[in-house]
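quick q for whoever's on today - can somebody do inverse folding on this one?? i tried earlier but teh output was garbage lol. tokens:
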């Protein structure tokens, strides 16, 4: 399984899933972990939506709220943070 991004790491792009499945794991309180599966039509990196609209603008990328791992060969379309910024 290929890790895409770890929880807490900066989010460099939004990723829209075209083919395949990606697992999302998010740490909760008391050591609990919430998991879900993203399929075609799903996306990750939504932290960038509020980041690019924030005024005054902050250049530091937001942290990922979850860890994302490919469960199988996947195809996706990405929008880099710099493209969302404007």
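ok took a stab at it. sequence:
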């Amino acid at each position: 399984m290929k890790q895409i991004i770890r929880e807490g790491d900066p989010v460099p792009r939004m990723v829209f899933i075209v083919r395949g499945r990606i697992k999302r794991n998010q740490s909760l309180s008391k050591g609990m972990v919430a998991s879900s599966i993203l399929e075609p039509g799903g996306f990750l990196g939504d932290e960038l939506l509020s980041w690019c609209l924030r005024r005054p603008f902050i250049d530091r990328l937001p942290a990922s709220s979850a860890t994302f791992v490919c469960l199988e060969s996947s195809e996706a379309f990405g929008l880099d943070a710099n493209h969302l910024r404007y």
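fwiw The beta strands are 2-5, 13-19, 22-27, 33-38, 43-44, 67-70, 75-80. also DSSP finds two helices and seven strands in the chain. so keep that in mind when u check it
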